[in-house]
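Milestone M4 deliverable, item 7.
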Amino acid sequence: MKVPPVRPVVKLLRAAEWASFETQGSFAGSADDVRDGFIHLSTPEQAVVTRKKYFAGEAGLVEVTCDADALGEMLRWEPSRGGALFPHLYRPLVQADVTAVRQL
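Output delivered:
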Protein backbone atom coordinates (compact mmCIF):
# COMPACT_ATOMS: atom_id res chain seq x y z
CA MET A 1 0.00 0.00 0.00
CA LYS A 2 1.42 3.37 -1.01
CA VAL A 3 1.20 6.07 1.63
CA PRO A 4 0.19 9.47 0.21
CA PRO A 5 2.62 12.34 0.76
CA VAL A 6 2.06 14.71 3.64
CA ARG A 7 0.65 18.07 2.59
CA PRO A 8 2.06 20.53 5.09
CA VAL A 9 0.32 23.64 6.26
CA VAL A 10 1.87 26.11 8.67
CA LYS A 11 0.86 28.62 11.29
CA LEU A 12 3.17 31.47 12.23
CA LEU A 13 3.01 32.26 15.92
CA ARG A 14 4.47 35.03 17.98
CA ALA A 15 6.60 33.92 20.93
CA ALA A 16 3.84 34.56 23.49
CA GLU A 17 1.30 32.65 21.38
CA TRP A 18 3.68 29.69 21.11
CA ALA A 19 4.37 29.74 24.86
CA SER A 20 0.63 29.69 25.54
CA PHE A 21 0.11 26.87 23.02
CA GLU A 22 2.83 24.81 24.71
CA THR A 23 1.39 25.43 28.17
CA GLN A 24 -2.30 24.98 27.30
CA GLY A 25 -1.87 22.20 24.73
CA SER A 26 -4.16 23.98 22.29
CA PHE A 27 -4.34 27.24 20.36
CA ALA A 28 -7.70 28.87 19.63
CA GLY A 29 -6.09 31.48 17.40
CA SER A 30 -4.61 34.94 17.33
CA ALA A 31 -6.80 38.01 17.71
CA ASP A 32 -7.18 38.08 13.90
CA ASP A 33 -8.14 34.39 13.84
CA VAL A 34 -10.74 34.84 16.57
CA ARG A 35 -12.16 37.89 14.78
CA ASP A 36 -12.46 35.96 11.50
CA GLY A 37 -13.85 32.77 13.06
CA PHE A 38 -11.08 30.41 11.92
CA ILE A 39 -7.34 29.88 12.26
CA HIS A 40 -5.46 31.31 9.30
CA LEU A 41 -2.95 28.78 7.97
CA SER A 42 -0.68 28.86 4.93
CA THR A 43 1.15 26.51 2.66
CA PRO A 44 4.92 26.73 3.21
CA GLU A 45 5.16 28.90 0.09
CA GLN A 46 2.35 31.20 1.22
CA ALA A 47 3.94 31.49 4.67
CA VAL A 48 6.93 33.32 3.19
CA VAL A 49 4.63 36.08 1.91
CA THR A 50 2.50 36.03 5.08
CA ARG A 51 5.60 36.52 7.21
CA LYS A 52 6.76 39.52 5.16
CA LYS A 53 3.30 41.09 5.06
CA TYR A 54 2.01 40.53 8.61
CA PHE A 55 5.10 39.83 10.73
CA ALA A 56 7.76 42.12 9.21
CA GLY A 57 10.45 43.01 11.70
CA GLU A 58 9.12 40.75 14.45
CA ALA A 59 11.61 38.55 16.28
CA GLY A 60 10.89 35.28 18.04
CA LEU A 61 8.43 33.87 15.52
CA VAL A 62 7.69 30.16 15.55
CA GLU A 63 6.54 28.20 12.50
CA VAL A 64 4.25 25.32 13.46
CA THR A 65 3.74 22.68 10.76
CA CYS A 66 0.76 20.33 10.51
CA ASP A 67 -0.36 17.69 7.99
CA ALA A 68 -3.31 19.19 6.09
CA ASP A 69 -4.92 15.80 5.52
CA ALA A 70 -4.73 14.89 9.21
CA LEU A 71 -6.61 18.08 10.19
CA GLY A 72 -9.73 16.57 8.66
CA GLU A 73 -12.93 18.17 7.46
CA MET A 74 -12.54 21.21 9.71
CA LEU A 75 -9.76 22.40 7.36
CA ARG A 76 -11.18 24.25 4.40
CA TRP A 77 -9.35 25.72 1.42
CA GLU A 78 -10.92 29.09 0.75
CA PRO A 79 -10.07 31.92 -1.65
CA SER A 80 -8.33 35.02 -0.37
CA ARG A 81 -9.00 38.49 -1.69
CA GLY A 82 -6.55 37.77 -4.53
CA GLY A 83 -8.23 34.47 -5.37
CA ALA A 84 -5.48 32.14 -4.09
CA LEU A 85 -6.73 29.26 -1.93
CA PHE A 86 -5.61 29.42 1.69
CA PRO A 87 -6.16 26.77 4.38
CA HIS A 88 -8.51 27.85 7.18
CA LEU A 89 -9.01 25.69 10.27
CA TYR A 90 -12.42 25.88 11.94
CA ARG A 91 -11.32 24.45 15.27
CA PRO A 92 -8.45 25.00 17.69
CA LEU A 93 -5.02 23.60 16.90
CA VAL A 94 -3.93 20.94 19.39
CA GLN A 95 -0.47 19.62 20.13
CA ALA A 96 -1.31 16.31 18.41
CA ASP A 97 -1.78 18.24 15.13
CA VAL A 98 1.82 19.49 15.15
CA THR A 99 4.35 17.58 13.04
CA ALA A 100 7.23 20.08 13.29
CA VAL A 101 8.19 23.29 15.04
CA ARG A 102 10.82 25.72 13.79
CA GLN A 103 12.10 28.89 15.44
CA LEU A 104 12.39 31.70 12.87
